[in-house]
Structure formats: structure tokens, C-alpha cells
């Protein structure tokens, strides 16, 4: 009860501000790159340096290195069999890739054809996982479960982020962050977000709120806020380091077709990638301009 009341109090003081408080204008990307067709199913990205990103797509175990200045794929190497690959992050000189079943792929020598790959079956309780990021302060990887962790109806509103300790290479079975969609949707209303109503099978008018199905996660390098993408909601959720919701950014579906990749440059600039679906896959950059 205490946590829920705290969220409401925070919401009334923060949600009345405009989204530019985050430091981004999501209506004006400084880069809007149409990606090659081979990245139509792009599902994650990791910034390597000022000009290069590593990315994956969710059908094949192929690592792509893409240059954002030349707008071309410069390298691609196979690291695994066909599978549903959903997240990628850079840790020092290694890349980690997340498969949806929770298996992690540790990739060394990612710039060469002689990749060194090691796998870790993390045994995340969730069967579908899409978010992956590096938490440098705590030397761990964060793994975002897309939906509920089991079929128990009592858990249908619960969402979790788990942590993988990089020192012991083991998963902590207790989630690092836990969220509740009921709390999130109540906070959304306090922010002024209005949800559409649809009729159910009984003819009743039911309000549909955010499903909060995690598609990517990342930690802001300057503010240390946790950014959580939900592609199905066309929304970006921002939490403080304690896991309390601070803001919800609604994303324009015509710009953010299916946002499944997110990462930050060291200066705070933000990259978001969109899966193509019926459109073209895109890579968007938003400059960080804090007030």
C-alpha cells in the first residue's frame, strides 16, 4: 500500500510537466534512417562508438555492424542458429545478445570473423523476454520480461525486470524491478492520458489502458533513469533508479511503427530502432538537450 501511495504522490508533482523535461523532442529526430531490408525485423541495437552500432534481428543469429554516417552495414557475422533474438548490449569489449527464452550469448571479437561465443541459460522465469541493457554501476545485465511470468491470473498485471550478475554469471531469481499495470495506468490518468473504450463480448464499454509489454530497456547515462519501451503501447516509460514511475511519453505510431531497439550515446543522445512490419525499418536519433 505504501508504494502505491508514493507513486500517486510523485505522479501529481511530475506528470503535470511537458515531455521536453526529459530533454528530447520526439517529434523531431535529427536522424531518420531507412535501414536495409535485411534488418526489416530489427529487434535490438547497441551503440559501439560515435559512428557504429551493433544490431540484431529476431529471426537469425546474425550480428550486424551498421555505420550511421555511411548508412551501410559494414560487417555481419553469424553467432547462433535461427531463433528469436530480442536484445543486445555492449559491456566493455564484449557484446551480449538475449534470446527470447532467456538464453544469453556472450560475444568476444565481435569486429572480426572469428567470433568467440559463450552461452548462458539464465532460466529467467518468464518465457518471453525482450529487454536487455548493461547496468554499469551494479556490474549486471538487466533482462526485461515482456509479459506476465506464468499463467496464474493473479499475476496478470505484474511485470518484472531481472538481473544477471556479470561477476558470477548467474541470474538473481528475485526481480530487480517489479511493476504493476494497474498502478501504471492510474498514474497515466494523473498525467492526463486518456484511453479509448471498446466493447467487450458482453457489450460493456471497457477502457483499454497500457499493456506495458516490454520491448526494450536502457539506463540513461547521465540521469540514471530507467527507460522502458513498449512497442504495442507506442509508449516510453521513464522510472527513477528506485523503480518509481516518473513520466510516460506517448509515441507517434506514424514515426514509431514498432519500437524495439533503444540505446544512449555517452552524451545522452538517444537512438531508437523500429521494426518494419508493413513499412520500412528505421533508425531514429534524438539529441539530448536538458534544460
How many strands in all?
Answer: 22
Largest sheet: 4 strands, antiparallel
Q: What share of residues are in beta strands?
A: over 45%
What oligomeric state do these chains adopt? single chain
Q: Determine the number of helices (DSSP H or I, runs of at least 4 residues).
A: 2
Distance between the termini: 34 Å
Strand order in space, largest sheet = 1-22-21-20
pLDDT < 50 runs, ≥5 residues: 1-18
H/E element order: HEEEEEEEEEEEEEHEEEEEEEEE
Rg, nearest Å: 19 Å
Mean model confidence by pLDDT: 91
Given helix and strand content, the structural type is mainly beta
Overall helicity: under 10%
Shape: globular
If you had to describe this structure to a student in words, what would you say it looks like?
The protein has 291 residues and is mostly beta strands. 8% of the residues lie in helices and 45% in strands. It has two helices and 22 strands. It has helices at residues 2-14, 181-191; strands at residues 31-34, 42-47, 52-57, 61-67, 72-80, 85-91, 94-99, 103-108, 116-121, 129-135, 140-145, 158-165, 170-180, 197-199, 205-207, 216-219, 226-230, 235-239, 245-250, 259-264, 270-274, 282-286. The protein has a four-stranded antiparallel beta sheet with strand order 1-22-21-20, with no helix packed on it. Strands 2-3-4-5 form a four-stranded antiparallel beta sheet, with no helix packed on it. 37% of the residues are buried. Residues 1-18 have low confidence and may be disordered.
Amino acid at each position: 500500500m505504501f508504494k502505491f501511495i508514493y507513486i500517486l504522490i510523485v505522479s501529481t508533482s511530475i506528470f503535470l510537466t511537458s515531455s521536453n523535461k526529459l530533454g528530447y523532442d520526439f517529434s523531431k529526430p535529427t536522424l531518420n534512417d531507412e535501414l536495409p531490408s535485411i534488418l526489416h525485423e530489427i529487434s535490438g541495437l547497441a551503440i559501439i562508438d560515435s559512428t557504429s552500432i551493433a544490431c540484431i534481428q529476431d529471426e537469425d543469429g546474425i550480428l550486424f555492424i551498421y555505420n550511421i554516417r555511411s548508412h551501410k552495414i559494414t560487417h555481419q557475422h553469424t553467432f547462433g542458429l535461427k531463433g528469436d533474438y530480442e536484445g543486445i548490449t555492449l559491456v566493455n569489449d564484449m557484446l551480449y545478445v538475449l534470446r527470447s527464452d532467456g538464453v544469453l550469448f556472450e560475444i568476444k571479437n565481435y569486429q572480426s570473423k572469428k567470433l568467440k561465443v559463450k552461452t548462458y541459460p539464465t532460466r529467467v522465469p518468464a518465457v518471453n523476454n525482450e529487454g536487455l541493457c548493461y547496468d554499469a554501476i551494479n556490474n549486471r545485465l538487466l533482462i526485461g520480461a515482456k509479459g506476465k511470468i506464468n499463467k496464474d491470473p493473479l499475476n496478470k498485471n505484474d511485470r518484472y525486470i531481472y538481473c544477471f550478475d556479470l561477476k558470477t554469471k548467474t541470474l538473481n531469481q528475485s526481480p530487480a524491478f517489479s511493476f504493476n499495470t494497474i498502478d501504471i495506468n492510474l498514474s497515466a490518468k494523473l498525467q492526463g492520458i486518456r484511453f479509448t473504450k471498446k466493447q467487450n463480448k458482453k457489450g460493456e464499454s471497457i477502457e483499454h489502458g497500457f499493456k506495458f509489454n516490454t520491448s526494450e530497456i536502457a539506463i540513461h547515462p547521465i540521469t540514471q533513469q530507467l527507460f522502458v519501451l513498449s512497442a504495442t503501447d507506442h509508449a516510453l516509460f521513464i522510472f527513477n533508479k528506485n523503480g518509481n514511475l516518473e513520466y510516460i511519453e506517448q509515441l507517434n505510431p506514424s514515426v514509431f511503427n514498432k519500437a524495439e531497439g533503444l540505446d544512449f550515446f555517452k552524451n545522452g543522445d538517444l537512438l531508437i530502432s523500429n521494426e518494419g512490419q508493413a513499412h520500412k525499418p528505421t533508425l531514429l536519433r534524438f539529441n539530448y538537450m536538458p534544460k
